[in-house]
Write a structure and sequence with these properties.
mainly alpha; 6 helices; elongated
């Protein structure tokens, strides 16, 4: 299979402007380096002239050095302006790309919202419900209904409870219920209080009668 050739990126006017500004910046930096070399050379010449007792020549070199230093200061200001301009343009280009991305994203979002309107969603849900009803009808007709009896539902609930006990352990309420005494289910006969026992024997009147006086 042949290799696909990638198309070169398109160079915009902004790219050309930034490239030219960076070229000017690099030229200024090179110019600063040359001036620095000249200043160092003039300083050495001034020292040598002082050694040779040539004060006028030494002063000439120093004045020339001062002029070159003034030019370097101006080049630093120009560099600051260029760097600021380059940074501003690059940042604006980034903002432009971000804005373009936001616009594209907003367009995609609008398209998705149109495709997922409430009416369409309701229609899909209705169609899905209709198909489920048809499936249930077919299952009932074939005797393959998925419904459970009440007993089977109770068995499912009990199995679920047992699994919850295995996984989570008993709840606090179940622990308290286990500790409480169980209520007896046997019938309890009411207890009749014992009646007092009455003496059936007749009282001995003679014994209880007081002693009568004996007549003479």
């Amino acid at each position: 299979m042949g290799q696909q050739t990638s198309t070169p990126p398109k160079i915009t006017a902004q790219d050309k402007a930034i490239f030219q500004l960076k070229q000017q910046r690099d030229k200024l930096k090179q110019y600063q380096k040359r001036l620095t070399i000249v200043i160092d050379k003039q300083s050495n010449l001034a020292k040598q002239a002082i050694k040779d007792k040539q004060l006028d020549r030494a002063k000439f070199y120093l004045r020339s050095k001062k002029q070159q230093q003034s030019v370097i200061e101006k080049t630093y200001n120009q560099l600051d302006n260029l760097e600021g301009l380059i940074g501003t343009i690059e940042f604006k280009l980034i903002e432009k790309d971000v804005l373009y991305g936001l616009q594209q994203g907003n367009a995609v979002l609008k398209k998705l919202n149109n495709e997922m309107s409430i009416d369409k969603i309701d229609k899909v849900l209705d169609d899905l419900q209709d198909e489920r009803v048809k499936v249930d009808e077919i299952s009932d007709a074939l005797g393959m209904g998925s419904g459970l009896t009440n007993q089977e539902e109770d068995e499912v609930d009990e199995e679920l409870r047992q699994l919850e006990l295995q996984v989570n352990g008993p709840t606090k309420q179940e622990i308290v219920e286990d500790k409480l005494p169980q209520v007896p289910t046997d019938k309890i006969m009411p207890q009749v209080p014992n009646e007092p026992v009455h003496d059936t024997e007749e009282p001995n009147i003679e014994s209880e009668r007081p002693n009568e006086p004996i007549a003479n």
